Amino acid sequence: MWRTGANQTTKITFSRDVTFGGKPVPAGTYALVTFPAQKEWTVVLNKELGLFGGGKTYDAKDDVARVTATPSEIPNRERLTFLFSNTTDDQTSLDFEWEKLRVSVPIKADTATHAQNNIKSAVGGASGSLANAARYVADTSKDYATALKYADNSIALQSSWYNNWIKADILARSGKYADARKFAQTAWDMGEKDPNFFFKEQVAKALQDWKGKK
User: What confidence score (pLDDT) does residue 54 get?
Assistant: First the structure.
C-alpha cells in the first residue's frame, strides 16, 4: 500500500455525493491510498484521515470506495502531480502522474439534479419572502393594492397554499369576497396535502364565512 504522496495522507474532498470509478461516494473528505501493481492499480478512498502522519493504521473496513485503474504511459514528469482532466458539467477525471506513468479515476456528479434543487430552493425562498411582504403590507399600511402585487408575484414564482391564502385574505379585506373564496379554496386544496398547513382553521372558517358574499 502507498499513501500516494509523502508525509501526511493525501486527501480529497467532495462537497456533493459523487460516483468514484463508478462507486457511489457520499459527500465528505477521504484519504486517497493506492495499491500499485505493474498492470493494474487499486485506488481506495478511506474514511480514516489520520493514516501515516497521524499515526493511524490502514484498515480496509474504513474503505468507502475501492476501484481498479489501468496505468498509462506519459511524457516524463519530475514530481508527483494531481490534476483533474476532461472536465464537463457532470464529470471529470482525477489523474495522478509521476515519472512516465498516469493513473486516472473517473468522477461523476448529478449536476442537473443539484442545479434544479438549487433553483427550486432559490425560487421557493423568494416566493415565501414575497408572500410575507404581502402579508406585512396588508397588516401595517393597509395598502392592499401593493400587497396584492407582492402576493401575485409570489404565486407566479411558486404557487403554494400559503401565498394563495395570503392573497385570499387580502382580497377579502378589499371586499372582493367571491375572488377571495376562489383563492381560499386553492389554499385549502393545496394545504390538505401539506403536513404544515398551519392556517387550516382560518382557511376553513373563511370558506364558510365568505360563502355567498360578492
Answer: 63
